[in-house]
Amino acid sequence: MKSWCTPLYEGTFSVGLDKKFFSIPRDGKPAKGALKISLNPFLIVNEKRVILIDTGIGSFGEDTGVERLFENIERHGIADYEVTDIFMSHLHYDHMGGLAHQNSGFWELSFPQAKLWVSKDDWARVMAKEEFYDTEKTEFVAFLDARADLYFLEAEDQPYPEIRVERIGGHTQFHQVLWYKDEDLNLMMAGDVMATRAQVNRVFAAKYDHDPEQSKQQRMRLAREAYEIGVTILAYHDEVCSMFRIVDYDPKLGYVTEPVSGGRP
Ligand SMILES: [Zn+2]
């Protein structure tokens, strides 16, 4: 069996200063002063494992639910209980919201058979908080802490032969980049440090980052490495092209990218 990867496009949102996520069409405009943010968890299937990288916003948007993630997985012929492993780039709710839900009136794990792989230090940081955003999300992480099959990752770790994680910081203190390599796939997912296709050519320090300068340096380093080794970049927040490769470098134009098509071969 050949291994494969696909984005699970969850939607495009207008996100204002109040941090609320309102669905808008993919080609729509955000509200005045708001950002346009798309969400793409990723599904990787190989001989031994069914892996999710980040899980979308779940029910924490204004009109969202974990059903969207379930539908997206089912469309690829996978059931929720078949997911074996979930890796988190970092612990922001638009990346981890799909981990649990209250569809039957009480908290339940969305992927009951899955191991949940998180940065050990990032998990400790979240658990040390009196409140995680608000009451509902505080309950959500406490539920995960008690019930999820948690596995903790060190700053440099390789939980499986095909998966390696590396702490890069920047967007959050313990943000991780995930590298995946087997005979069929060569992938890199750097969460919000490289969140869109356009970011490979933008040198910027963003106020929304925990450490803007670190994020900038890592983004430049990862783009260079991604080009050198020909890895496919998984861009969680890209609107139209969440899987792409850097195929060339032009001194005037910068990196040249091309889309990579995902899905079951
Ligand atoms: Zn994000």
Question: What does the model show?
Answer:
The chain is α+β, with helices and mostly antiparallel strands and 265 residues long. It has one domain: Metallo-beta-lactamase, Chain A (4-Layer Sandwich), CATH 3.60.15.10. It is 20% helix and 30% strand. The strands form 4 sheets. It has a 7-stranded mixed β-sheet. A 6-stranded mixed β-sheet has the order 1-5-6-7-10-11. The chain has a 3-stranded antiparallel β-sheet with strand order 3-2-4, with no helix packed on it. A hairpin with a 6-residue loop joins β8 and β9. It is globular and about 55 Å long. The protein starts with a strand and ends in a 6-residue tail after the last strand. The site of zinc ion (ZN) has 5 residues, from α2.
CATH fold field value: Metallo-beta-lactamase, Chain A
- Supply the CATH architecture: 4-Layer Sandwich
Name the bound molecules. Answer: zinc ion
Individual helix count: 5
> What number of domains?
1
The tally of beta strands, per DSSP, is 18
What are the low-pLDDT stretches, counting only 5+ consecutive residues below 50? none
Q: What structural class should be given to the helix and strand makeup?
A: alpha+beta
Give the percentage of residues in beta strands.
25-35%
Widest beta sheet: strand line-up: 12-13-14-15-16-17-18
Largest sheet: 7 strands, mixed
CATH superfamily: Ribonuclease Z/Hydroxyacylglutathione hydrolase-like
Q: How far is the N terminus from the C terminus?
A: 9 Å
CATH class: Alpha Beta
Mean pLDDT: 96
Estimate percent helicity.
Answer: 10-25%
How many whole angstroms does the radius of gyration measure? 17 Å
Q: Which sequence of SSEs, written as H and E, runs from N to C?
A: EEEEEEHEHEEEHHEEEEEHEEE
Shape: globular
